[in-house]
Structure formats: structure tokens, C-alpha cells
């Protein structure tokens, strides 16, 4: 297994350690997993599957940050 993988995040290439699940990868990339919505390889990935989904090289993530306001 390679030490690092390359993935697409919001259309840009990024690297992260291999073997991370979705929340771990998001944290590595600087996101708070509780405050984002995620599209994974073209489909919405529901939170119940995040901890069991391992990020692999070539995956495409679209991350939208949730912003509160008044």
C-alpha cells in the first residue's frame, strides 16, 4: 500500500495519507466534518457511511461548508 494517495477536492488535486476514512480525510484537509456536506465520486454520501468509506487514490470529493448566520 502506498503511503500517500492523490484525490480531487473541489476540482483541485490534493494528497493525503492512504487508509483514511472520510472524516479523517476531511480533517487532514482542514475541514470540520460536522460542518460540511459531501459529494463523493459524483453522489451525495450520507453521514452514516462516512466512517466505513475509505478514501482511495483518484476519488473525487466536493465539499460544501455549512455557514450559519442570522
Automatic annotation (TrEMBL):
<dbReference type="Pfam" id="PF02597">
    <property type="entry name" value="ThiS"/>
</dbReference>
<protein>
    <submittedName>
        <fullName>Thiamine biosynthesis protein ThiS</fullName>
    </submittedName>
</protein>
<dbReference type="InterPro" id="IPR012675">
    <property type="entry name" value="Beta-grasp_dom_sf"/>
</dbReference>
<dbReference type="InterPro" id="IPR016155">
    <property type="entry name" value="Mopterin_synth/thiamin_S_b"/>
</dbReference>
<dbReference type="InterPro" id="IPR003749">
    <property type="entry name" value="ThiS/MoaD-like"/>
</dbReference>
<dbReference type="InterPro" id="IPR010035">
    <property type="entry name" value="Thi_S"/>
</dbReference>
